[in-house]
Amino acid sequence: GEEILPKMLDAVVVGAGFSGLYMLHRLREQGLSVKVVEAGDDVGGTWYWNRYPGARCDIESMQYSYSFSEELQQEWKWPEVFSCQPEILRYINHVADKFDLRKDIQFGTRVTAAIFDETQSCWEMHTSRGDKLVAKFCIMAIGCFSSPRIPQIKGLDRFNGKYYQTSRWPHENICFTGRRVAVIGTGSSGIQLIPVIAEQADHVFVCQRTPNFSIPAHNGPLQPEYEQWWKSNYAEYRRQALETPFAIKVKHETSTSLVAATPEERQAELEKSWQIGGLEFLIYFHDLLFNKESNDIAAEFVRNKIRETVKKSEVADALIPQTYPLGTKRLCVDSNYFQTFNRDNVTLVDLRNGSIDEITPTGIRIKEKIYEVDDIVFATGFDAMTGPLLEIDIRGRSNKSIRDKWAEGPRTYLGLMIADFPNLFIVAGPGSPSVLTNMTVAIEQHVDWITECLKYLSKNHYHTIEPQVEAENNWVLHVNEIANLTLLPLANSWYVGANIVGKPRVFMPYIGGFNLYAKKCQDIVNNDYEGFTCTKALIESYD
Ligand code: NA7
């Protein structure tokens, strides 16, 4: 007989991280029926999964937090300038409780397929638990770094010791005291983890394939005066952040180009920027991501800092990035990373002299040499941005699959929607600037935009919205053209998918700046959703 479908919801939100939680809150405020489906057993997304020692945000917590509730931003106290993962998770849990969000979240459940039903104009979603959900709107709030990758290295299954993955870290406390540990990968995760593990372990072997640029965070306790300064005028400072390309309120005025300066001026400005530290090092000079000459000067300054810090010159040389401009692979922010290589219990294993041939029962073999270890930590990254979406079997009009549509790279309009996939929204999707900005700001902007869009549809009695193919094509072209004005496509980074074998090389995020992006999104709304097509239902069946 006829299959009985579950109750039609207004929206299903996939993911209960920063995006999904705020999306739920906003939609519920509109009186909509919403259910969130979350793979993890609790809220937090990225901050739920990435529990490795040293995990920390590299944007200041006064800014890496929600702005939508004045009460929330006034009441919350961050202990440090840059928060560690447990603190951020504690905050997210507080938000979930304060806004009573948990009651609409189904945990421990993965969405495996999302199929658009053209006759009913609704999304049918299937989960790992075998449930089926039906909703008018589907919102993918699944994050950019939720599809982790472990390299397929021969012999891992025969390894006698334990192995871990930074983004699937166990919940219990892992102690490395007395143990010999190999860490594979020196991206942001590895660079945060290595100094912490080195303090516990008997020995750490750092297996590095590509050296990374990293700038010290200069983290410390959040000073009450600084906190007060933010809180005294929070809304205004947040507003100022919205007007910047990275959605960050910086501490210092942008400096002029390094190119025109004298060597003394350069040194002084670079030193000043180094003292500010973190990602602001990249923002302090306006042209580092555009001008190779300027970038070379800053990169050489950082290389010299590595040479000054690392005592053994051959180790320093191996840690110095030479093959790509500064900031074109995601810039890392650290606490004592390069200093760690001065410890007697840390060995740098340069995989450029030979990659890992095999994992033996007792260690890692590179050519004839075996590094005997008790534990292996994989800090080997993610199939970033597109991976999480492509893991789900998403089908739009005419059963068209997103995997086919994106075979040569992601195609979206504004990073928010996809032609032929009506009523499907993405938060922080490819084609949006999110990963190049303060993610929490981008998330709020996306979620607010989606909320406004649903209000517009309801007000005008529309049942579907989707981008026009031409608008989408123009956006994809624009995202690429802007990227090509910068130095970023030059590096083999996850921005271009270079870390995943066989992934098409396309620069995925929008680098035109958060401020311009947000204005563009608003202009499109003001022009009656320019580039989108809205339709009314053939039959007013399901209200
Ligand atoms: P990343 O930045 O992708 O770093 C992964 C690291 O793992 C990087 O050093 C890779 O080297 C290395 N890697 C990957 N595969 C291998 C193999 N097969 N052998 C050796 N080394 C390997 O991931 P993170 O988790 O550190 O950070 C992700 C983002 O999260 C970060 O950018 C922030 O935005 C937040 P490679 O450079 O590819 O040669």
- Structural Rg: 24 Å
User: Helix coverage percent of residues?
Assistant: 25-40%
Please identify the structural class as seen in this structure.
alpha/beta
Low-confidence stretches: none
End-to-end CA span: 24 Å
The backbone outline, from C-alpha atoms, is: globular
**Share in β-strands:** 15-25%
Q: Average pLDDT value? A: 96
Q: Give me the number of helical elements.
A: 17
The major pleated sheet works out as: 8 strands, mixed
Which molecules other than protein and nucleic acid are bound? Answer: ligand NA7
Say how many strands there are: 20
Please tell me about this protein's structure.
Pfam families: FMO-like. Its cofactor is FAD. One of its GO terms (molecular function) is flavin adenine dinucleotide binding. It is an enzyme of class 1 (oxidoreductase). The chain is built from 17 helices and 20 strands. With 543 residues, the chain is of the alpha/beta class. Strand 14 (363-366) and strand 15 (369-372) form a beta hairpin. The model has no long low-confidence stretch (mean pLDDT 96). The protein binds ligand NA7. Ligand NA7 is lined by residues 145, 151, 166, 184-190, 207, 209-210, 330, 351, 379-382, 494, 499. The site of ligand NA7 has 21 residues, from helix 5.
